[in-house]
Specification:
- By secondary structure, this protein is of the alpha+beta class.
- The chain has a single domain (6-178), classed as Peptide Deformylase, CATH 3.90.45.
- Helices cover 23% and strands 24% of the residues.
- It contains three helices and nine strands.
- The chain has helices at residues 26-41, 129-142, 153-167; strands at 6-7, 46-48, 58-61, 75-86, 89-93, 103-107, 110-116, 122-127, 177-178.
- The strands form three sheets. Strands 2-3-4-7-8 form a five-stranded antiparallel beta sheet. Strands 1-9 form a two-stranded parallel sheet. The protein has a two-stranded antiparallel sheet with strand order 5-6.
- The structure holds zinc ion (ZN).
- Zinc ion is lined by residues 95-97, 137, 141.
């Protein structure tokens, strides 16, 4: 098993849509194990493949260590599709790709999820509470969406400098991160055009 570095806010892979999985290779099985390990080591309760730099529709959730998630089991979700949703609730979210920022976001309260397991067997299950919340957050990742995308313009303006710092990796985390690549500074070529 191996720990994988987590891509930070601003990196391109977090803005892209992940591809559907059509077959599971041995590498994918190893990847899933590494995703669980990486999430646990980082004290996260959810992790999507985009966050470790891969555009695959794979996410993992484990809320068993939380008050709300006592007695639940870790869940691997492949090719998720929300087929029904109900209610609306505001809840504070955080993200391993956006360390130290937590904001309230409105989302459907409960969802019915169609997804596949490691054998690509199809399941359909209902989720509510924290489980539903984490799943929706992670499914958003697979669609290139971050929770900060839901914030108001004012909120975003207030967070702008902190988000910029995060994107540069100018932040302390207990896990390895991948910041936005800083382009090597090229000397501005003097214009010779007349
Ligand atoms: Zn996240």
């Amino acid at each position: 098993m191996a720990l994988l570095p987590i891509y930070l806010y601003g990196t391109e892979v977090l803005k892209k849509e992940a591809q559907r999985i059509i077959e599971i290779t041995d590498a994918d099985v190893a990847l899933v194990q590494n995703m669980f390990e990486t999430m646990h080591e980082a004290n996260g309760i959810g992790l999507a493949a985009n966050q470790i730099g891969l555009l695959k529709q794979i996410l993992v959730v484990d809320i068993s260590d939380t008050e709300a998630g006592k007695g639940t089991k870790p869940l691997l979700v492949i090719n998720p599709e929300i087929v029904d949703e109900e209610g609306e609730v505001e809840f504070e979210e955080g993200c391993l790709s956006i360390p130290d920022i937590r904001e309230k976001v409105w989302r459907p309260e409960s969802i019915r999820l169609r997804f596949q397991d490691i054998n690509l067997k199809v399941h359909e299950k209902d989720f509510d509470g924290l489980f539903s919340r984490v799943l929706q957050h992670e499914i958003d990742h697979l669609n290139g969406i971050l929770f900060t995308d839901y914030l108001s313009g004012t909120k975003k303006t207030l967070l702008k400098s902190r988000l910029k710092k995060i994107s540069k990796g100018d932040i302390e985390t207990s896990y390895e991160v991948v910041p936005v690549e800083t382009k090597p500074k090229t000397k501005s070529a003097k214009s010779k055009r007349k």
